[in-house]
């Protein structure tokens, strides 16, 4: 099932509402880097995001080194070849509320 892809205007609104997120992959994803005090704090954040992802059935791509967590959001079944969808908007908002 294909998910509707966000329009360029909707992507601009998303980035305006969440200025810590940046466009990635030629507008097909958004990314944000989080810096924590230590590994334990970073891991705790990742655990909370994982629980959110499970409830939303929408899982981020991420990379972790010690106290840094890089999160990328995209919807693989949006549009013709993947892109941003309302799922990513909801997940970015939920992640932002964890901080």
Outline of the structure:
The chain has helices at residues 8-17, 39-56, 86-97, and strands spanning 22-24, 29-35, 61-65, 68-73. By secondary structure, the chain is of the alpha+beta class.
Q: Determine the strand fraction and express it as a percent band.
A: 15-25%
Strand order of the largest sheet: 1-2-4-3
State the order of secondary-structure elements, H for helix, E for strand: HEEHEEH
Return the average pLDDT rounded to an integer: 95
Shape: globular
Cα distance, first to last residue?
Answer: 33 Å
Number of helices: 3
Draw up the topology in text.
Blueprint lengths: L7 H10 L4 E3 L4 E7 L3 H18 L4 E5 L2 E6 L12 H12 L2
Antiparallel strand pairs: 1-2, 2-4, 3-4
Give a verbal description of the structure:
The chain has helices at residues 8-17, 39-56, 86-97, and strands at 22-24, 29-35, 61-65, 68-73. The protein has 3 helices and 4 strands. The chain has 99 residues and is of the alpha+beta class. Strands 1-2-4-3 form a 4-stranded antiparallel beta sheet, with helices on one face. The termini are far apart.
Q: Any key phrases for this structure?
A:
99 residues, alpha+beta, four-stranded antiparallel sheet, 4 strands
């Amino acid at each position: 099932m294909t998910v509707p892809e966000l329009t360029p205007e909707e992507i601009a609104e998303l980035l305006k509402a969440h200025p810590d997120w940046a466009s990635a992959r030629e507008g097909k994803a958004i990314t944000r880097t989080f810096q924590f005090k230590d590994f334990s704090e970073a891991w705790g954040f990742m655990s909370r995001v994982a629980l959110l992802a499970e409830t939303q059935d929408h899982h981020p791509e991420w990379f972790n080194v010690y106290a840094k967590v890089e999160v990328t959001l995209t919807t693989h079944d949006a549009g013709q070849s993947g892109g941003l969808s309302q799922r990513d908007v909801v997940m970015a908002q939920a992640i932002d509320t964890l901080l």
